[in-house]
Amino acid sequence: MTGILQSLIWAPLLPLWLLIVLAVLSLLLGLYGATRGSRGVLWRTGALLLGLLWLANPRLTHPHMQTQPQDALLVVDMSPSMEIGERQKLVQQARTTLMKQGQALHGLTLHQLDVPGGNGQGTRLFEAMDHAALSLNNPAGIFLLTDGMDHDIPGQLPPSLKDATGRIIPLHLLLSAKGEETDRRLRVLTAPPYVIIGQTAHIRVQVDDLGTSGGQPVDILEHQPDGQTNVLTHTQSGQPVELDVPVTHAGITLKELTASPLPGEASLRNNSTIIRLQGVRDRLRVLLVSGVPNQGARVWRTLLKADPSVDLVHFTILRSPDTEDDTPLSDLALIPFPTHELFAQKINSFDLIILDGFRNQNILPESYLENIANYVRKGGGLLVVGGPEMTQPGTLQDTPVGSVLPAHIPADNAIISQPFSPKRTALGLSHPVTQALPENGPWGKDWGPWYRMLRTDQTQGRTLLATPSGAPLLVLDKRGQGRVAMLLSDQIWLWSRGEKGGGPQAELLRRLSHWLMKEPELEENQLDAHIEQGRLTVTRTSLTPLHDVQADIIGPDGHHTSLTLSPEADHQGLWSGNMTLPALPEQAGQIWTIQQGELNTTVALPDTNPLEDQDLRSTATGLSSLVAESGGGVFWLGSGGVPEIKQIKEGRSLHGADWAGLPLHQAPLATGSTSTAFLPGWLALILILTMMGLGWWREGR
After folding, report:
1. Other CB atoms within 10 A of residue 126 CB
2. Is 472 helix (H, G, I), strand (E, B) or coil?
3. What is the mean pLDDT of residues 153-163?
4. With respect to CATH, is domain 284-521 assigned 3.40.1110.10?
5. Any transmembrane segments, and where (predicted)?
6. Is the pLDDT of residue 329 over 60?
7. What is the spatial distance between Cα 138 and Cα 68, in angstroms, rounded to a whole number?
8. Distance between CA 287 and CA 301 in Å, rounded?
9. Quick check: helix, strand or coil at residue 343?
10. pLDDT of 294-327, one tens digit each?
11. DSSP-based three-state secondary structure for 406
12. Do domains 69-180+618-664 and 183-281 have the same CATH topology?
């Protein structure tokens, strides 16, 4: 009604003042006649007023309109889920057909937008559409070619479905299937991140049937390295099931579970899942004995207390038994040093003993020091951090402990006091303890300096850290079934204080202590593998020379492939090789087994698109509400084919069974307009005669 009033103009056939006077007189006469009871006077008054309205000549103006050029967006979903079945083929055929149709329509420009998706982010079509719509001059609609699985569907119409004036434009959904599909997936509901070695992990999984009712029978199977499968349990979809997985070794245990297929489901890709269980030892017990209060003791204590898997027992010797001091013992320590309990009764219960700045000074009898040496030979770990006390009377190397130490300190001129930056040796670049230490950081190209070290006249084992001149700083060795390490400087704490940038103090000490406690990841003799972008890389670490290193690659289907490992020139003790993995059927499995000599390891294909693989159906369920709200249509490319694009006047339906419409937007021209009579003469004459006749009829009653 407001639009009609705005386009109404007046072109009176008589002077406007005269028409107003006559209208007022007609109203007065009509009111007078009505008060006197005259019959038919109101009808005659209405006829007179209608005649005066016709003489006022109201007219409707009609601006000259022009159809505006149209922009439409053709959005193509290129996410990994579109690789299933014939989805890509259907979508590419639809793209070609729609582009030809768009070129044939006058004033329509069809813009293409490919949305890759994946990479752990899922499919994000609306984010891409909102960005692309900003560059369209006159958006008229969007054609979305997809499987219907989008992970950023908004709760209301997004900006891409509105033009600059706020008008809603249609979203036409073209789905890459014949109709609604079904899919079966296997989910892990609960799984412990860590499991103590020798215990059983309790896993809770569930099979979901998407697009159909649950409660259907299903088998959960386990893939074997030889490509065979065995049934773990029978269950029903939609019901959680408990599984027990034994963990027999430290490190990662891989277990692949698979749900039997659902007839007619879209894909088998998410019927399988990989369970990764980290096998850990029970609480690790560490005994730290500080010979004197020092800066390094705090570093060790902070490091070990921060590790939740470590139980730390720490003692600091404040004075030796022969020290003359009148201070009561109660003021120096809360409890006496339990030498017999620690070094005789419970020494074998510790996984690691750290002697930091320790000088015997008659603190421990000879038998207890012999117990420490025997503890190492029977499988224990010992770390000695040496400082000036190693050159003083009572040094450890002059006791039975010296028989297991990997370095010997001479009696004269053993302390070197000058700044130096620790460096990794050629062996240190390959050894797991120091290989992955960060080179770049706040310290720049070189680690921060230390200012004191011990000179050696004899070393055994392997030197991982040294001074720039080649003097050993960190020496590792194996004695019997145990391990021993010797740090020939007591100034590693300077790194924790950030001395000239500091260094990787926490990581070095963590790796060193765990190597001494025989952490599998830090073994010198190990086999590692990882898969990235479809390529398998195998790395063999050995500190003894190897010749003709061949790895046996066993695929999930049980097929064997030989891979040659070549020595790496820049890293002593490393052999590596890589190969492109062949494409396997979806149900063939995802775990590869690698064997080299007596070593073996397993590696699983990375789950690069967990969000994408949650639901692999082609479905209109998620997008149908937005499509309906925008006035668009839903079309199944596999059954109904590609819809025909039509340009439709605004206000009409924008889709049919086999066509998709784009509203024609028109704008008025500034060159002129036309007008038509609001009350045509023939209509006014008929109404006037009718009202006069009714007045006469009423008067005759």
Report:
1. 23
2. strand
3. 90
4. no
5. 14-34, 677-697
6. no
7. 8
8. 11
9. helix
10. 777 777 788 777 777 788 888 777 655 555 556 6
11. coil
12. no
- What does the alpha-carbon distance between residue 495 and residue 498 come to, in Å, rounded to a whole number? 5
Nearest to 209 by CA among 146, 270, 281: 270
Mean local confidence (pLDDT), 669-690: 74
* Residue boundaries of the structural domains of the chain: 2-65+672-699, 69-180+618-664, 183-281, 284-521, 527-591
Neighbours of 544 (CB within 10 A): 7
Pairing verdict, β 70-77 and 108-115: parallel
Predicted confidence at residue 100, as pLDDT, reads 95
For residue 550, CA distances in Å to 119, 538, 561, 600 come to 34, 10, 10, 12
Helix runs in 105-242, H state only = 125-133
Q: What is the mean pLDDT of the chain?
A: 86
Confidence at 383, pLDDT banded by 50, 70, 90 = very high
Q: Tokens at residue 459, please?
A: 């070393």
Number of CB atoms found within 10 A of residue 545's CB: 8
Q: How far apart are CA 680 and CA 689, in angstroms?
A: 14
**Cα–Cα distance, 265 to 257 (Å, whole number):** 18
Q: Which residues have CB under 8 Å from 392's CB, separation 6+?
A: 359
| Token pair recorded at residue 381 | 């770990």
Rounded to whole angstroms, the Cα distance separating 647 from 140 reads 10
Integer Cα distance of 420 and 236 in angstroms: 67
**In 3-state terms, what secondary structure has residue 14?**
coil
What is the CATH number assigned to the segment(s) 183-281? 2.60.40.1930
The CA–CA distances, whole Å, from 161 to 152, 156, 324, 633 equal 15, 10, 89, 14
Query: How many C-beta neighbours within 10 Å does residue 214 have?
Result: 14
For the chain, the first-to-last Cα distance in angstroms comes to: 39
Q: Which of 249-253, 318-322, 481-485 has the highest mean pLDDT?
A: 481-485
For the chain, state the CA radius of gyration.
44
Cα 667 to Cα 163: distance, rounded to the nearest angstrom:
14
The answer to whether domain 69-180+618-664 has CATH 3.40.50 is yes
Q: State the amino acid at position 199 in one-letter form.
A: Q
Do the beta carbons of residue 532 and residue 423 sit within 8 Å?
A: no
Q: CA–CA separation, 512 vs 258, rounded Å?
A: 40
Q: DSSP label at 650?
A: T
For residue 437, the tally of other CB atoms under 10 A from its CB is 17
Which residues sit opposite 572 in a β-bridge?
none
Which is more confident, 67 or 556? 556
- The gap from C-alpha 429 to its chain's centroid, in whole angstroms, comes to 32
Q: What is the average pLDDT across 376-404?
A: 89
pLDDT at 667 over 80: no
Interval 223-248 mean pLDDT = 88
Cα separation, 527 vs 223, in Å, equals 22
Amino acid at 352: L
Q: Which token pair is 300?
A: 């060790």
